[in-house]
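Hey team,

Filing this mostly as a record. A colleague (T.K.) asked me to run one chain through the structure pipeline before their review meeting, and I want the input and output archived in the tracker in case anyone asks later how it was produced. No errors, nothing strange. Just documentation.

Input sequence:
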Amino acid sequence: MIDPAYVQTMARYNHWQNASLYAASSTLTDVQRREDRGAFFKSIHATLSHLLWGDRMWMSRFSGVARPKGVFPGTDAIEDWKRLAAERVELDAIILAWATSLAPADLEGDLVWRSGLLDREVQAPRWLAITHFFNHQTHHRGQVHAMLTAAGAKPQETDLILMPPAAP
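Output structure:
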């Protein structure tokens, strides 16, 4: 079982890492960000778009965030780079506020939702769904980090223990 401090730490980590990846991504051209680099979602832009879409989907299940439009994988949800970056900043602030508001009881019980991917209702312990939410982010950010590094961009370190104490 996780506790609110874990969720808050992971929300801070999400914010810190997204800021790093978007800053590094912004040093590339739009063509470079959209280049097929052999990752699951092919490009940096598509992977970041999927991640924003997925985070919105999970936050719609955890809180009052509107469910995103479109269907999995959401790689074409936002075509404009500046808009994608701005919406990432906005959602990360929402995730931080949500994490800060959690009480231990908010992590108990089951979460039930309709999965479009599986085309059925799914039920899982709430704490496990939240853990998955953060794990999913870390997984795809790792892919983006590798693509950025291969493209010559320089994102920050990704180790959780290196997160600056001043990170939100």
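Quick notes for T.K.: The beta strands are 110-115, 120-125. The longest strand covers residues 110-115.
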